[in-house]
Design a protein that fits this description.
two-stranded antiparallel sheet, alpha/beta, disordered N terminus
Length: 185
């Protein structure tokens, strides 16, 4: 483990490693590049900082986190303590529960990212997506063929790059922990 590497630096290292692989592909006559797509929230933009110096980057609100409505900015414990009715209703049906006050459900997020997924499927180049957990779960579930009912419960570790490579029988997955990058250096 390298304590001097933070998550943002790690993403840049992973993408640069992928870029080196693609440079070899270009030399072999296969032209493909890397595009970075990112949500518009502050934490997404901070992560994008290192990558935008070397790669084309596009921000879109389609990749923003599930909107919490009146509970936006509250953590799970706050909701459980101060709004047990909301907490219990969401625990009962995480897929379809929509937070009060213009909030979203996972079903809403799936609908929101649908045009983004269509665009991802058209890409011939590698795409790096920087987003929050709800969007990551939706994208991962779609490409890995996971039923929507299981989507809210997917365990996707933080500070990890998920490389999904489409193939004839689904996607091949490779997980790269950003804190275990010695093999890339």
């Amino acid at each position: 483990r390298r304590p001097d590497v933070n998550a943002r630096d790690g993403i840049a290292d992973v993408v640069m490693g992928r870029d080196q692989e693609q440079e070899k592909a270009r030399e072999a006559g296969r032209e493909d590049g890397i595009m970075v797509l990112c949500g518009t929230q502050a934490i997404n933009i901070a992560t994008l900082e290192h990558l935008q110096l070397s790669y084309p980057c596009v921000t879109t609100s389609l990749l923003n986190e599930l909107r919490g409505g009146d509970m936006d900015g509250w953590n799970r414990d706050d909701i459980k303590t101060m709004r047990p009715d909301v907490y219990n209703a969401r625990e009962t049906d995480k897929l379809n529960y929509r937070y009060p006050g213009a909030g979203e459900s996972y079903t809403d997020v799936m609908q929101r990212v649908r045009p983004f997924i269509i665009e991802l499927e058209r890409q011939r180049q590698s795409v790096v997506v920087i987003s929050h957990l709800a969007v990551q779960r939706c994208l991962y579930a779609y490409f890995m063929g996971i039923p929507p009912a299981d989507l809210p419960y997917l365990q996707l570790p933080h500070h990890t790059v998920y490389e999904l490579e489409p193939g004839p029988f689904g996607c091949r997955e490779r997980r790269i922990s950003l804190f275990e990058l010695d093999h890339l250096m």
